[in-house]
Amino acid sequence: MLGTIIGDIAGSRFEFNNQKYKCFELFTNECSFTDDTICTVAVADAILNGTSYQDSIHRWCRKYPHPMGGYGGSFALWVNSDMPTPYNSFGNGSAMRVSPIGMYYASPDDVLRQAKASAEITHNHPEGIKGAQVTAMCVWMMKNGGSALDLKSYAETEYGPLPEYAPNSNPFDETCMNAVPVSISCVLGSTSFEDAIRRAILVGGDSDTIGAITGGIAEAMYGIPIELKDIAMSYLPDEMKSIINQFYSKL
Q1: Is the pLDDT of residue 215 over 80?
Q2: 11 and 232 in contact (C-beta within 8 Å)?
């Protein structure tokens, strides 16, 4: 979960201005959390308190109506509606918020069921649901001792051959069909948590969300250095920190 948030914050300043070179600061005063962090915290809150994913995400996003980068058009309408309904999306929003589910639930069946439930409140297109399920399962696999080979095999069963990683190769494509395979490729070629985040930002495209999905999987694979945890938490309001601390205590 915190890996998702780190990837989001580090990628936030590059979403519409992709980074071209490998040497860059992960965190600057130009960084902030975006909708990816808000929704991820909301999913964790729903798990902790037994509320619906819809109610939790709707409530948290209304608390923070103007995050860095804003909300996507259809999702913004959903947030602003008093009676929100799903809109058949296959955008990457279902995948970027799902990492707490992969961290929390013990069985693959529960992970798949909960990931579907978290997605279909907005992203009820089959590819939107699939993106959430595959991302959550990748987190679950790495948390439970899976290898990089296991991760690659599973991802290619779902998406076919993964894209070959290359800096600045990824177009701006906000779909699950782009973001999930690209993010998995970023993890597979990495040597550490920080390296995975740097690769995610350098690959190009929707940098905060590629960073978020990559970060969630990379956390489960490597853990997170304490100094990165501390810096990321410094960007967050107290009520988000409280949910994060409660979530990890429950784990």
Answers
A1: yes
A2: no
